[in-house]
Amino acid sequence: MQNQEDKRKEKAFKSMLMFGIFSIVMLFAGLTSAYIVSKGALSSEEKWNYIALPNVFAYSTFAIILSSIFAVFSLKNLKKNKLKNTKRYLMIALLLGIVFSVFQLQGWSQLVNEGHFFAGKDSNVAASFIYVLTGVHLAHLFAGLIVFGVLLYKLRMNKYTSENNIGFKLGTWFWHFLGILWIYLYGFLLYSTSNPVV
């Protein structure tokens, strides 16, 4: 009976997560579509500024990939009831997420130093889109960091075990999604900032 109840809970939580992920995907699909349309329109009038992405974004990409790997290690250890290792790996994943955030802020600082502003008389559409795409992603990543903080707290309170790990598993899934989303955004921006067609 308890097993059936757990399955119902897991199904409900999975549905909520999938709905949230779908909503985020649609948001970024709209933003990247707007980027492509704006670039096409302004490029034809030679009003589009081609901006090189900050090099530090490559470092942040590496950080988020590493973070996801440690999140995988953490879940695997939880399934084996190795709670000490679970906490350790999750903490590393969380710290790497913070490192990612710092790199993103450094990237914005580099853009500003190069004269590319989000708004104002010296701003341009290309730069504004870079700020919006990376900024909206970073806002969602902050939510992911909060989730990791909650998971760590629950681990300390012994709320998760090898048998009871639905919330933990879904939390790591959300984090992996954010990592995949960033890799897509980074690839999209890297290609489109150097290619006149896209």
What characteristics describe this protein?
single chain; 198 residues; mainly alpha; Four Helix Bundle (Hemerythrin (Met), subunit A)
H/E series: HHHHH
According to CATH, what is the class?
Mainly Alpha
Question: What distance separates the N and C termini?
Answer: 55 Å
CATH architecture group name: Up-down Bundle
Return Rg in Å: 20 Å
The proportion of residues forming helix, as a percent range, comes to: over 70%
Shape: elongated
* Stretches with pLDDT under 50, minimum 5 residues: none
Largest sheet: none
Mean pLDDT: 91
Query: How big a fraction of the residues is strand?
Result: under 5%
> CATH topology, anyone?
Four Helix Bundle (Hemerythrin (Met), subunit A)
Number of helices: 5
